[in-house]
Amino acid sequence: FQQALAYENGEGVPRDPLLAANLYCEAARQGDRDAQYNLGWMYANGRGVPRHDGRAAYLFRAAAEQGIETARRLA
Fold this sequence. Notes:
The chain is built from five helices and no strands. It has helices spanning 2-9, 17-29, 33-45, 53-65, 69-74. The longest helix is centred in the N-terminal third of the chain and has 13 residues, at 17-29.
């Protein structure tokens, strides 16, 4: 998750939103709630990936089930 966050924001590494999305995706598949939320945010806002409301909602629901209240509201 931390590596994906770094690539998403260009913190200590070149900004690479596509790599960030791929890293978030792997972490999200493993159940990382923060990765689910952040990847959902990327899809919801078209940030580095094509906007996709369905994927965003799916990821927000997954993160909400693990206790992220903001994700529940966004889902």
